[in-house]
Amino acid sequence: MEIIGDVTLWEFRENALHLTTSHAKMRIAQYNASTFRVQACKTSETFQETSYACPEMPASQEMRLTDLGGKLVAETSFLRLIIQKKPFRLRFETLAGDVLSEDDPGLGIIWEDREVTNYKTLQPGERFFGLGEKTGPLDRAGKQYRNWNTDAYAYGQNTDPLYVSCPFYMGMSHGNMYGIFLHNHWETVFNFGAANDRFSFFQAKGGQLDYFFFGGPKPADILRDYTALTGRIKLPPMWSLGFQQCRYSYYPDTEVLRVAQTFREKNIPADVIYLDIHYMQDYKVFTWHDEKFPDPESLIEKLKALNFKVVVILDPGVKIEKDYPVYEEGLARDVFVKYPDGKPYSGAAWPGWCHFPDFTDAAVRLWWGDHVAGLVKQGVNGFWNDMNEPAVWGHHTPNLVGFALEGKTGTHKEAHNIYGMQMSRATKEGAEKVLDGERTFILTRATFSGGQRDSAVWTGDNHATDEHLMLGARLVNSLGLSGFPFTGNDVGGFTGDAARGLYRRWIAHAAFHPLMRAHSMINSRQAEPWSFGEEDLEVARNYISLRYQLLPHLYSLLFEATQNGIPPVRSLLFYYHDEWKIFTEAFENQFLLGQHLMICPVESDAKLARVYLPEGEWYQFLNDATQTGPAEHLTEIQRDTIPIYVKAGAILPLQNTIHHVDEPNDGLLRLHLYFGAEGSYTLYEDDGHTRANESNAFAKRRIDLKADTVHMSGVEGDYKSRFTKVRFYLHGASFSKGNSGGQGIEILKEDFRFLNAISNFDPYEDYPDTAKVVVGLGYLELPLSGNPLTVQLS
Ligand code: GLC
Question: Is the pTM for the entire model greater than 0.85?
Answer without folding.
Answer: yes
